[in-house]
Amino acid sequence: VRPLQPARRVRLGRGAPVLALRYLLAAAFAFPFYWMLVLSLNRADAILQLPPHLWPQWQVQNYAEVWRFANWPGLFANTVATTAGRVGLALVTSTLAGYAFASMRFPGRAAAFGLVLAVSMVPTEVTLVPNYITLARLGWIDTYQAQFVPLAASVFGIFLMRQYFLTLPRDLWEAAQLDGCGHLRYLWSIAAPLARPALVTIALLQFIEGWNAFLWPLIVTETDRVRPLQVGLAAFSFTDSTRPELLAAGAFMTTLPILIVFLLAQRQLVGGIASTGIRG
Amino acid sequence: VYQIPEHLFARRRAARGALGAYAFLAPALAVLLLFLLVPAVWVFGLSLFRWDLIANSPTFVGLANFERLLLRDDLWWQSVRQTVYYAAVSVPAGMALGLLLAVLLSARMPGRGLLRGAVFAPYVTPFVATIVIWLWILNPDYGVLNAALRALHLPGPSWTRSQDWIMPALILYGVWQHTGLNLVVYLAGLANLPAHLHEAARVDGAGPWSVFWRVTWPLLSPTTYFLLFVNLIGSFKVVVPVYVFTNNTGGPDHAAETIGFYLYQQAFAFFHAGYAGAISVAFFVLILAGTGLQLRLSSRRVFYT
Question: Is the dihedral of CA A93, A99, A101, A106 positive or negative?
Fold first, then answer.
């Protein structure tokens, strides 16, 4: 039997119209980002003029002015803190659990793994009310930890680490064991470093989820002291709709870190998302 | 010398090993149990009470919440209809666009990565930041979309201000936002197709159009079913776009309310915890039924290579 070869390309037209269609469609998808930039650089009166100005007016001071309208350093710090907590905890919980499922023999392993599979079917929307009650009882409302501890374990992360650890040769563990290495030591100094691509994928996906987090922080925070960027931006948009150019500047500032990470790590990010169809 | 039988050692080693394994699992399992499994069971209990979250204690009301939800709550049924509308339009549109783009962008061409990136970027950028821009694009009076429609002598709808057009506005945003996912999954699907079938079809004289419909499309059916499932679930969960598009109002005459948004409002705007629990249960059952149906269908209909 001839081995299956991947299709190099699917040929569907090569003419100029098809080529133009590609660029046109991609441009349509990119347009809102372009428009974000254009609006953010508009003069204050330009937005209410018709027809709209299609090119930026380079009113760069909008970016200085928007800083007076919200506590952006605080919001940025809150987002960084909660995102870091989320990424860090997800990496730890995924690595430990993924390793146990891949490399350790213990009674109840199948049941525990089935449990992880089962909880992946629970839509997070269903958990909003009970989790809010739990956090209220813990006295965690309006704290950092409320925003990331409930999300500190990722089923996808556990699966991915497990898959990765399963590919490591058994000899590696046996050799390490002969040298007096325990599971934790082996995981820390040999297995986890070898699984770096999987760790990067998990970190990227958690970073995106953490940075973009909106609904859950909206529910469990009450003050700007702990609120993340997106919640602050929504509050700004609801209260100050008279200055859309400033709103656009704020939107662009909060999006920029994501766009930078996306440009730097597009390949890993797309690979991680394409294999699961989920972001977290 | 008395020797301890080997099997006792083995058992003890196994016991220590099990303890170690559960220590490794504990952090992940604790979070998953406490914040996913327990709540999933808890909402069923919650749905049997009347409880406003703020004032004191819950009152047991049996199935009264469900009786009200299913028989007397027009807003709930409106949100169900609107969610189905949202899913029925946005899912096929996003998938068709994703497939078209995947076919167009799978060929080698200059700037291919950039074009793919442009389509995928909306999927990873924050909802709020992009929606506030979309709200200006769709602004009935000053928006660039209606300006373009006017230039073409077409009437510009009043989008978010209109009962009939707010849902299309949400769908437009949703398709823009999630087509990138369909693109990358279809690209991965295309890359895994065996080339010799296409070649054989071409040798037999099939044109690109019939190669696509007779070979590529059937071979892609596992990808299509996977995406259909992911997209349907995702579209049934839409909450944040509704919240931001309508400034937490649900739109003119509730015209943009979805199941998820209705749940959010009952729980965190009106603090009807018990009633929100009943909505959660209904939503949960809906999602599980959809998952089950999807699994059955996909095992019967999907063409595996």
Answer: negative
**pLDDT tens-place string over residues A102-146:** 999 899 999 999 999 989 889 999 999 999 999 999 999 999 999
Mean pLDDT lowest among A11-25, B35-49, B194-208, B283-297 = A11-25
Q: Which amino acid is at B295?
A: L
Question: DSSP class of residue A120?
Answer: T
Instruction: Please enumerate in sequence order all residues whose Cβ is within 8 A of that of B209, keeping only pairs 6 or more positions apart, or say none.
Output: A12
CA–CA gap between residue B97 and residue B171 (Å, rounded): 13
Q: Quick check: B87 and B79 in contact, CB under 8 A?
A: no
What is the DSSP secondary structure assignment for residue A70, as one 8-state letter?
Answer: S
Cβ(B171)–Cβ(B132) below 8 Å: no
Q: Give the C-alpha separation, A233 to A224, whole Å.
A: 11
Contact list in B for residue A269 (CB cut-off 8 A) is 124
**Kind and range of the H or E element at B26?**
helix B6-32
Query: Any chain A CB within 8 A of the CB of B117?
Result: yes
Residues 6+ apart with CB under 8 A from A106: A100, B14, B17, B18, B21, B22
Beta bridge partners of B194: A6
Q: Is the pTM of this model over 0.80?
A: yes
How far apart CA A255 and CA A233 sit, in angstroms, is 11
Sequence-separated (6 or more) residues with CB below 8 Å from residue B229:
B291, B294, B298
String of b and e for B2-36 (b: at least 16 CB within 10 Å)?
eeeeeeeeeeeeeeeebebbbebbebbbebbebbb
- Rama region for B89: left / alpha / beta (φ>0; ψ in -120 to 50; rest): alpha
Gyration radius from chain B CA atoms: 26
B232/B41 Cα distance (integer angstroms) = 24
B20: Cα separation from own chain's centroid: 37
Contacts of A250 in chain B (CB under 8 A): 129
Exposure letters A243-257 (e unless 16+ CB within 10 A, then b): bbbbbbbbbbbbbeb
H or E segment to which residue B60 belongs: strand B59-60
Residue from the list A11, A128, A158 with its beta carbon closest to the beta carbon of B208: A11
A6 three-class SS? strand
The residue of chain B with its CA nearest to that of A158 is B28
Q: pLDDT tens digit string along B137-165?
A: 999 988 999 999 999 999 999 999 999 99
Give the C-alpha separation, A7 to A23, whole Å.
23
Q: Measure Cα distances from B258 to A64, B171, B237, B240, B241 in Å.
A: 38, 12, 8, 10, 10
Residues 6+ apart with CB under 8 A from B7: none
With a cut of 90, say whether residue A6 has pLDDT above it: no
Rounded to a whole number of angstroms, the distance from the CA of A161 to the nearest CA of chain B is 13
Task: Quote the distance between the C-alpha of residue B202 and its chain's center.
Answer: 38
Judged by a CB distance cut-off of 8 A, whether residue B93 touches chain A is: no
Contact check, Cβ <8 Å, A230/B176:
no
- Kindly write down the DSSP assignment for every residue of B189-205, as one continuous string: HHHTSBHHHHHHHHHTT
